[in-house]
Structures are given as structure tokens and as C-alpha cells.
Write a structure and sequence with these properties.
The structure is a single chain. With 454 residues, this protein is α/β, with parallel strands linked by helices. It folds into three domains: 70 residues, no CATH class; 110 residues, no CATH class; 234 residues, von Willebrand factor, type A domain (Rossmann fold). Helix content is 52%, strand content 9%. The strands form two sheets. The chain has a six-stranded mixed sheet with strand order 5-4-3-6-7-8. A two-stranded antiparallel sheet has the order 1-2. Helix 6 crosses helix 7, helix 6 crosses helix 9 and helix 11 crosses helix 13.
């Protein structure tokens, strides 16, 4: 824990690091956290963590990054780094340490597991980098102890001859795997702490925390990110459907109510000065999605296909089309009940979206107009997803203008930063003069787009 005299500096640095990592912290929330520190026991590190989390963390998605930064700015312990290397551990010593770790994985408190992790980082985690300098690594600790190989021995000792494969074994496996994840995280936390002591907290903080899930760039998402994004997609799909329905109702009046209009005209001598209309019938909007699936935006395409899958439940009718340099309808891959991952695999293997493999928006638009003109009508919202980079091919602006004119609403979501529009082969502004184009690089910007169309 930092001394009392340095607590203000630690607080200010911690709040700044949270903001730099994408966790929104207002001035008022920073002051709330400072006030909370006056009513807790500062020596109790977990109370300090809870006070900061209660005042600064507004979403569950922000909590992992918060915990990483808290452990850096308010470490459980500090250590004096020694430049000399320890001798290589003896086989007997490693065996004894592995046996002790097996006992901890079977059952231990957080403090016991953390203290053992810190000792193992001190013992195995240091690597000499240059004279007078040393680096710290998690992998060398895990390689020395190989905790993933302890399961068989733990099961043998705990079950003691009882039948394998039953509930008892399943319970033991779950407990050991959970404790193993806790141990790995404790090792990683202590490694980050030691690097911070050597290199400075700010430096390690910039590389230790991934952005919150709602701020991860669609063009850089990983498979693990996509799994987490699936939870964000369904609420957004519901909100998008609701917004388009509201806009439809605002933009359209119902049929003339002749009886009410004539009755009102009696007050003005039979002259219908005021006309009355019947309320429009409630409906779910129809949606057509036209999605660039080329390699340059493959990560964005994966996310938009997740969105397409979720949108099917919110609209009366959804038709989805994918293109690279020609276009194919891909609605069939997202039938109700289909697994979304399997659907994407089938789409990549079976859909006819490629002729020569170079993105061509103009040819894709022309082909869409030839084959699927009936997809767009006066009740349709058209959503185009892509970076508007067409390899210097003719853009077919007149075709896009015709499609947009036939639809009720048309929007274009571009995953590139605005400052990159119109550079190289981008023709974003040309398309943007026909269909309103929005920068859409992450969930936060997608949410802002949905809110803006009401």
C-alpha cells in the first residue's frame, strides 16, 4: 500500500490511467472516490478496491481493466529487485513445489494462493536481459511448475479409489480448474507489479489493459472478442428495430379519417378547415443488409453478421446480402435455430460473393440491382456495411441513388476512421452524398448511430 502522504498522487494517477484505458471517469466520480477513501480503512486493500469500484466502474465490461490497473497502482506488496540470478532449481525442489501447488489447487484461500504465486514469480519469473537489467515473465513460472499436468495426481489422491467419471470427479475438476485460473491470474498480476516497479506504472499500464469491449475496434477484434460481442449485439438489435419503427411512425400519417373530418367541418359551416387522419397501423419494419465481406474488413464483417443474426428476431422481414466483387443473398445461412458460428463457416464456403477476389462496390451494386431489385421497397430500411474502398473501379453512383430512392431509409456504416475516408481507393464521400455515412468502429459508435436515427 502507498504511504498516506502519497495517496493523493496514487489516486490521481489511477484515475488518469482508467481514463487512458477507455474507462469513463468524470471529475465528479473521481471526487466521489476520494470522499469514499475517508470513510474506509485504508489498510484493508480489498475495502479500498471495493470503494473505488463502487464509485468509478459503471459497467461490468469495465471491471477486468479496472482490476488490472488497481493491482498496479495499489499492489498487495512491493519487492526490492535483485540483480543477481538464483541457481537453477533442483529436481527435488521443483517436485516439492508442485506437490504444494497441487494442495493449493485442491483447496486454498485467495491470500494463500497469492502468496505462493508471488514466491514462484520471485523464484522462476526473473530473466536476465542485460547487465544490470532483468525482465519478468509469467510463462517461465508456468513452464517450471506445469500446473496443468497435476490434475491426474489430484484426482487420484482426492477420489482414493472411488469410481471415476461421476459427480465427485466432476466437482473436483471444476474446483481445480477454477483455482488454476486464479493462480495464473495471481502470477500475471505479480509479474505486472514487478515490471511496473522496474519500468514505471504508466508504461506497463498502457500495454496491460485491453480496451473495454464496447470500445474495441471492429477491424481488430479477435475470436475471443467476438464471443463477448455476441452479448452486446442482441440489445442493440432490439434498439435499432425500435428506433426505425419510431421513425416510421413519425414520418408517416395514417389514412384520412373522413367521418371525423366532416364532423369537425360543421363548426366552420361545412368547410373542412381541419383534417383528421387515422393512426398508422403498428408494424415491424423490413430490413435489407448489404455487407462487404472482403478480407480487408473481415473482422467487421464477422461482427455485422452477428448483428444480422440478431436482427432477424426483431424485424418482420430481413434479407441479407454479402459481396466482394459480386453479390449473393446470404439470408439462408441465418435461419432461426441455426448456430451462428456454423452459419458463418457455411457462408464462407458456399456463398457466391467472389469473382476475381478484389473488392468492387460498383459491380456488386449493379449485380444487386439486376438480381435483387425486388428486395427494396417503400417499407424497407437499407443498411450498407463496408469501408467504401473499391480498388479504383467505377462506383456505380447512379445505381446506389436508385436503390436509396426506392427505400424508406438508407444508412451506411463505415468501420474506418473518418480521417482515412477519401484516401487511396476510398470513395466514401461520393457514396456519402447519396446515403448518409456514419463512422462505426466499435459498439459505442454503433450505439450512438442507433440513438441518432430517432
Amino acid at each position: 500500500m502507498p504511504e498516506r502522504g502519497s495517496l493523493v498522487d496514487r489516486h490521481v494517477g489511477f484515475v488518469h490511467a482508467l481514463r487512458a484505458a477507455g474507462v469513463p471517469v468524470s471529475v465528479a466520480e473521481g471526487l466521489d472516490a476520494a470522499h469514499a477513501l475517508r470513510v474506509i480503512e485504508l489498510g484493508d486493500r480489498e475495502s479500498l478496491r471495493a470503494a473505488y469500484a463502487a464509485t468509478l466502474v459503471k459497467k461490468p465490461a469495465y471491471r477486468p481493466g479496472f482490476d488490472v490497473l488497481f493491482d498496479l497502482w495499489f499492489p498487495a506488496s512491493t519487492s526490492g529487485l535483485r540483480a543477481h540470478d538464483r541457481p537453477e532449481p533442483a529436481t527435488a525442489e521443483v517436485k516439492e513445489l508442485r506437490e504444494h501447488l497441487a494442495g493449493l489447487l485442491t483447496g486454498s484461500t485467495d491470500q494463500e494462493l497469492r502468496e505462493f504465486a508471488e514466491a514462484m514469480v520471485e523464484r522462476f519469473g526473473r530473466q536476465q536481459a542485460a547487465p544490470g537489467r532483468q525482465n519478468w515473465f509469467s510463462y517461465s513460472v508456468m513452464r517450471a511448475l506445469s500446473p496443468e499436468t497435476l490434475m491426474a495426481g489430484i484426482l487420484r489422491d482426492v477420489l482414493q479409489g472411488r469410481e471415476r467419471g461421476g459427480l465427485a470427479e466432476k466437482t473436483v475438476r471444476q474446483r481445480v480448474n477454477s483455482n488454476l485460473r486464479r493462480f495464473e491470474e495471481a502470477v500475471a498480476t505479480d509479474v505486472r507489479r514487478r515490471i511496473a516497479e522496474d519500468s514505471g506504472i504508466e508504461r506497463i499500464a498502457r500495454s496491460a489493459v485491453r480496451p473495454p469491449i464496447d470500445q474495441i475496434d471492429f477491424l481488430r477484434v479477435t475470436k475471443a472478442d467476438l464471443a463477448r460481442l455476441r452479448r452486446e449485439v442482441y440489445p442493440l438489435a432490439r434498439r435499432l428495430a425500435a428506433r426505425l419503427t419510431i421513425k416510421h411512425r413519425k414520418g408517416r400519417r395514417g389514412r384520412l379519417d373522413f367521418r371525423r373530418t366532416m364532423r369537425a367541418s360543421l363548426q366552420s359551416g361545412g368547410v373542412p378547415l381541419t383534417t383528421h387522419f387515422k393512426p398508422p397501423r403498428p408494424h415491424k419494419p423490413e430490413l435489407v443488409i448489404l455487407c462487404d465481406t472482403s478480407d480487408s474488413v473481415s473482422s467487421f464483417a464477422h461482427f455485422t453478421l452477428l448483428l444480422t443474426y440478431a436482427l432477424r428476431e426483431q424485424f418482420t422481414k430481413v434479407r441479407a446480402f454479402g459481396f466482394v466483387d459480386t453479390v449473393d443473398e446470404i439470408t439462408r445461412f441465418f435461419q432461426p435455430g441455426a448456430d451462428v458460428v456454423e452459419a458463418m463457416t457455411r457462408l464462407a464456403n458456399e456463398a457466391d460473393m467472389v469473382r476475381f477476389g478484389r473488392t468492387n462496390y460498383g459491380h456488386s451494386l449493379e449485380r444487386f440491382a439486376e438480381r435483387y431489385a425486388d428486395a427494396i421497397g417503400p417499407k424497407t430500411s437499407l443498411l450498407i456495411l463496408g469501408d467504401a474502398r473499391s480498388n479504383y473501379q467505377p462506383p456505380a453512383l447512379d445505381v446506389l441513388k436508385s436503390l436509396a430512392a426506392r427505400s424508406r431509409h438508407a444508412y451506411w456504416l463505415n468501420p474506418e476512421p473518418k480521417q482515412q475516408w477519401d484516401t487511396g481507393d476510398s470513395i466514401a464521400s461520393d457514396y456519402g452524398t447519396i446515403v448518409p455515412m456514419y463512422e462505426c468502429r466499435n459498439v459505442t459508435q454503433l450505439t450512438a448511430f442507433i440513438e441518432s436515427i430517432a
